[in-house]
Amino acid sequence: MGEESYREMPSSRGSRSALNGPVEPGVKTGPEEGVAQPKTGASSHPASGRAALQPSEHSPWPAVLAVGLLLVAVGLLSHWLIAALGAVVLLAAIVGWLWQPWVS
Amino acid sequence: MASSAETWPRPQWYEEGIWGWVTTTNHKRIGVLYLCTSFVCFFAAGAMAMMMRTQLMRPDNNFLTPEEYNQIFTMHGTTMVFLFGMPVLAGFANFLVPLMIGTRDMVFPRLNAFSYWSYLVASLLLYSSFLAGGAPNAGWFSYAPLTESPFSKGAGMDFWSLSIIMLGMSSIAGAVNILVTILTLRAPGMTFNRMPLFIWATFVNQFIILVALPSLTAAAIMLYLDRHFGTAFFNPANGGDPLLWQHLFWFFGHPEVYILILPAFGIISEVIPVFARKPIFGYSFIAYSSVAIGVLSFAVWAHHMFAVGLSLTAQAVFAFTSFTIAVPTAVKIFNWLATLWGGAIRLKSPMLFALGFIGLFVIGGLSGVSLAVVPFDWQVEDSYYVVGHLHSVLFGGTAFGVFAGTYYWFPKITGRMLDERLGKLNFWLLVAGFLLAFQPMHILGILGMPRRIWTYNANMGWNDLNMVSTIGAYIIGAAVLAFVLNLIITLRGGKVAGPDPWDGWTLEWAAASPPVMHNFDRLPQVRSRRPLWDEKHPDKADYLAAH
Lengths: 104, 547
Known about the structure:
The structure holds 2 protein chains of 2 kinds. By secondary structure, chain A is mainly alpha-helical.
């Protein structure tokens, strides 16, 4: 079982939900239920659409970006060379962040 | 109930090593990191509070030097507001928002991780100032021109301004993430009108952060430019205006009070109905009063500046808006009381802290209304009355809300139940400490004791009240020790909680405790504000009653 998706996704407006039994006739279930939901009658479905492609569970780049910021700040407090190093780390983190592939 | 480690369902996200935590983008891990780091900061700021109270315990005391005292009160305030108050609530939001709205994670997981790591490095930067020649020493709101180079020559204020800039980036990134998550990733069926009230409060809270924090971040950048690049935004000697700092700071600073209290309101709105076994009374009023507070919070900032010479019109307007903002707050209080009325109340630790919150926060709220009365404000401005009011709001409100939330959701986060006896000891010590530490401050302020003074003469008539206040601070310290002891004992072998130990009604209780990596193996259908109630009681489901 992948870590990045529901094992099953509940139906929002199916005439019968595997999770809760039959939906009462005439019950209003809200406008969002029409958004990106399975066809009527589906009891569960795999993640799809927006949920199918997503960032991996692990990425070092957010932490590296924060360390880059810290180095820039320390450089401003001490020596410009440290700030320059921080700027390089910042750039590397941004590139790495954008370069890291998403997973399905 | 089973209590052995073998029966404790440790999910994968608990088990991964240090690298797994450093590189994680999972909202639960990031939430746990926020919570742990912010509580460490809380303990540090609490230790500094004890040092201050020890210094003020008796007149003419020399426990701290004046310079040390200035640094300690500045770091105490900065830590409590920026490194504990905001991040601990961000920790709850991180862990709970996806669970409560029924989704897998935040919409921007890497941005979420960046928010945490930039908060952590900003905290480290701020505290490293102690090792680099002296911490900032101008108070947590760092008024200009005291913070300008001619008056603050060390690097302390530079550490402060750079840390605040980084914390601003962290908070703004976190706000974008949480707002977009709530807007776009709610479970099917979860309309705005069915969102848990904690989510409502968090939504408004993040909106306030998004609008208010840029003001402070910009002010901190301007301060740094003044100190190092020859600008004169706040320096009157070169044409600047120190009042500009106050406007920029308090445009952030008063909404900040609501940034710190709204999520606590949300926590209380979750705890009270579950432990009163009644649906919340006046859901819509509580939800929309959060919106009203969010809007009004941007129209009250100058009540912190009544003594600077504002026009009478400005003073009247800001006094009026400051009175007005008490109305939506009172709406919440009355609705919580109405929820309690006739309920089958269970006095477990989360409920005790929630009830304590209502009683003690009202003290802070009422003293706040008194400060909106301009002539009274002139009398007690920058006195211990204001210190007593601030702590009544933020300790009686935010801290009690945080403890209520911690006792309520600790089983969800860790899978173990905090000990009830230690929880009750924690609560009663905290109530006693709160009353003894902060209420004498109101009287001290009326007697003329200015805030932030290092010591005082024995003939001022302040001796006994200061002694009482210090004893109260030590009792609060004992309460926090009981809490830490509870954490240690529970994590080493507390009772296993199970998925729904409180018989809760919102979606997070449908997940395992702790939740699995993907949060839900199955998600109850959301057809009302209490989806788990509907599932447990299909014959008495809320959505049936609504039709």
